[in-house]
Write a structure and sequence with these properties.
Order of helices and strands: HHHHHHHHHHHH
Structural class: mainly alpha
Bound molecules: iron/sulfur cluster
Distance between the termini: 37 Å
Number of domains: 2
Largest sheet: none
Helix content: 55-70%
Number of strands: 0
Length: 224
């Protein structure tokens, strides 16, 4: 089976498993997603969704947030961790939106990458979720699952995984597929426990399944 064929099957199976999977950060405007994505680094989306309520209540637009002092932003976002650097990036990013992009979030990848605190993962997320354009979001779940399933071979670097996936995933499927990998990675193909392969809809096409199956059988045998 080629990687492309494996990817096509994985895309369809995960569509059935998680039909409504989407971004788990709450937002109703593009600039808010930009802020939340920065805050989500090393923090849960649930926590970010709570913290931004206070932030957006106090600073309800790009202008207001751009005018805020980084220290005042930090005071609100500190519970997300890395408060100082996140507040600094958010401040610089909002000021650049105000001064160079007319207060609007740019709808192309290259301009998104110019924004402070925005890397490939965030730029892809905005491209896919806000603008409905082709996107591959290589977060930790995507990287782990793509290696296990066999869509990439022992590639851990996010940009390299992204580039490999562009070759095998139809562009219009990329954004949703990556969201579904996050759901599958949280529920089934977990990072911190042995993956729950027996209830995985991908086990017949997953390259790692035989190894995990063997491990599970050995553990069961020891318990007897
Ligand atoms: S079979 Fe196991 S390792 Fe493979 S994707 Fe499913 S849960 Fe992950």
């Amino acid at each position: 089976m080629t990687k492309k064929e494996r990817a096509a099957i994985a895309i369809e199976r995960l569509k059935k498993e998680y039909p409504d999977a989407g971004c788990t950060l709450d937002y109703n405007e593009a600039w808010k997603l930009l802020v939340s994505v920065r805050l989500a680094a090393q923090c849960t989306d649930e926590r970010v969704n709570v913290i931004v309520k206070d932030l957006f209540a106090k600073y309800p637009g790009v202008e207001a947030l751009a005018a805020a002092e980084p220290e005042d932003i930090e005071a609100i976002v500190r519970p997300c961790g890395l408060g100082k650097s996140k507040a600094r990036d958010i401040s610089k990013c909002m000021r650049m939106l105000r001064d160079e992009f007319g207060g609007r979030v740019p709808d192309n990848f290259d301009d998104l990458m110019k924004l402070p605190g925005v890397g490939r993962k965030s730029a892809n997320l905005i491209m896919g979720d806000v603008f409905g354009k082709p996107a591959i979001v290589t977060d930790t779940h995507c990287i782990r699952l793509c290696n296990r399933i066999g869509l990439v071979d022992d590639i851990k670097e996010p940009k390299k995984v992204e580039m490999a996936l562009w070759k095998i995933i139809p562009p219009e499927e990329g954004s949703d597929f990556c969201h579904r990998l996050v759901f599958h990675g949280r529920d089934v193909c977990t990072a911190r426990t042995t993956p729950h392969c027996e209830r995985c809809c991908l086990k017949d096409i997953c390259k790692a399944y035989p190894e995990y199956k063997k491990q599970a059988e050995e553990i069961a045998a020891k318990k007897k």
